[in-house]
Amino acid sequence: MNAPAVEVPRPPLSVAVVTETYPPEVNGVAMTVGRLVQGLRARGHRVQVIRPRQPGEEASLVADGDATLGGLPLPGYPGLRFGLPAKGKLLRAWRQERPDVVHLVTEGPLGWSALAAARRLGIPATSGFHTNFDRYSIHYGFGILRPAVAAYLRTFHRRTLATLAPTVALAAALAGEGIPGVKVVGRGVDTALFDPQRRDGALRASWGVAEGGLAVLSVGRVAAEKNLPLTLKAFAAIRAQRPDARLVVVGDGPLRRSLEAAHPDHHFAGVRVGEDLAAHYASGDLFLFPSLTETFGNVTLEALASGLPTVAYRSAAAAELIRDGEHGVTVNPGDEAAFVAAAVGVATDAAGRQRLAQAARAKALACSWDQVVTDFETVLRQASGGAAGAYAAALGSASSLPMV
Fold first, then answer.
1. Which of 100, 223, 272, 404 has its CA 20 to 30 A from that of 306?
2. Rama region for 370: left / alpha / beta (φ>0; ψ in -120 to 50; rest)
3. pLDDT number for residue 280
4. pLDDT tens digits, residue range 287-302?
C-alpha cells in the first residue's frame, strides 16, 4: 500500500501592501484591506502596510514594521488622503528587505510609484480593483476626463501579474478590457457582529420611530456618487403610503450638511462603527441602496447579515448575492421608476419583509471572511512564484508600455 501523502507546510510569505486608505478610516476599501491584512497575519505571514499618514495620527496607530508616508487631502473627501510618489524610498527599503510580493490596493501616485519600484526590482506585483474612479468623475464635474481616467486604470492594472476583482461580472469586464490575470476574490462579512439580534428599541425611539413604525436606512458615504436623490425620492413615495416612516442616514460625506439643512425631518446619524453600526442595521426595517458606482458595495452584505430587507439595483454585490424576491428586491440598473415602486412595495408588505429578512440572513451566513483570505493568499502565492524571467514573460503584453 502506498503511504498517505503528507502535506508539507508552506513557508510564510513576506507581503508589502500599498494602500491609500486603511483603518481606522471608515469606508469599504479600508475595511476590506484591514480584514485581508489581519487574516494574512493570523496565518503567520509577514505583512507590511505602506500608506499615507492621517493628520494628527499617532505613531501608536501604526503596527510594528508598517510605514506611513506623505499625503494630501483627496478633493471632496477631506477625511481621506492620497499618497505622494515614493519610488526612491521604496527602492531603498525593498533592496534592504525584499518582499516576496507587492499588493497594490489603490492606483494613486503612491500606488504607481510602488508599482514602478517593484518592476525595477523584479518583485512580483498584484493589484486590487476596488473603486470605479472613472464613474466617479461624472459626479464631480470631471466627466470629460472619464476616458482618460479609464485608460490610466487599464494601464496600471495591465502592469501587474494579477488584478483582483470582487465580482464575476467585474472580472469579466476587466478581462474584456485587456487586463491580464484577472482573479475573483470576493468579500466576506462578520455575521457575529452584523446580527439581527442587535435590534434595539431604544435606538429606534431615538430616531423618532414610533412603536410599529418603519425605519428606512441609507448607509454609506453621503456623497454624489451614491445616488442619494433617488433614495430621497423613493422615501418620499414610501412616506405617502406609510406616514409613520422615518429615513435614517448613516454615514458622513460632502453632501451631509446640505441634505440635513434641506431635510430636517430625516435623521442623520453620522459615522457609526463596530457594534454601534451593527445595531443601526439591525434596528432598521428596510435598506435602500441605489448606487451605480460600486465595484462591490460592502454595505449590501452587511445589510443581508443584519436581516435587513434590501432594495438595490441589479449591480455589483446585489447582482450576485440577492436573488430577486428571495433575499431582497433588485431592479434593472438605471430604472428609477422600478426602484421607487420596489421600495414602496417592500415598505407596505410586513409579511414580505419578514420573509426577505430571514432569507437574507441565511445567505450572508455562507459569506466567510476566512474563505476570502484563503483566495487572496492563493493569488499571492501564485504571484510570488512568478519572479524573474517568468514575471517578465507574464508582462509581455505590457512590454510596449512606457517604463516608469
1. 223
2. alpha
3. 98
4. 999 998 888 889 999 9
Q: How far apart are CA 218 and CA 289, in angstroms?
A: 7
pLDDT digit string (tens) for 72-83?
776 655 566 778
Sequence-ordered strand ranges (E) for 90-213: 101-104, 125-128, 162-165, 182-184
Residue 6 CB: number of other CB atoms within 10 A? Answer: 5
| 188-247 pLDDT, tens digit each | 999 999 999 999 999 999 999 999 999 999 999 998 889 999 999 999 999 999 999 999
Where is 86: in which H helix or E strand? none
Which residues make beta-bridge pairs with 49?
17
Specify the pTM: 0.84
Pairwise CA distance, residues 266 & 259, whole Å: 9
Domains 14-188+369-398 and 196-364 share a fold: yes
Is residue 105 within 8 A of residue 33, CB to CB? The reply is yes
Kindly tell me if the per-residue pLDDT of 67 is higher than 80: yes
Average the pLDDT over 326-353 and give the result: 97
In the predicted model, what is the mean pLDDT of the chain? 87
Q: Which amino acid is at 60?
A: S
Res 285: pLDDT: 98
Q: Which helix (H) or strand (E) holds 216?
A: strand 214-219
Alpha-carbon span 118 to 122, nearest angstrom: 6
Cell of 312: 438595490
> Across 314-370, where does the E strand assignment appear?
329-331
| Structural domain spans, the chain | 14-188+369-398, 196-364
- CA angle in degrees (0–180, nearest 5) for 214-354-331: 80
- Three-state SS at 403: coil
Grid coordinates of 351? 409579511
Distance in angstroms (rounded) separating the CA atoms of residues 400 and 21: 31
Are 13 and 384 within 8 A, CB to CB?
A: yes
Helices (H), 179-222: 201-206
Query: Strand 267-270 to strand 245-250: parallel, antiparallel, or no bridges (unpaired)?
Result: parallel
Residue 197 backbone phi and psi in degrees, to 5: -65, -10
Quote the CATH superfamily of domain 196-364: Glycogen Phosphorylase B; (3.40.50.2000)
pLDDT at position 10, please?
Answer: 81
Map grid coordinates 435606538 to a residue: 203
Rounded Cα distance, 108 and 361, in Å: 36
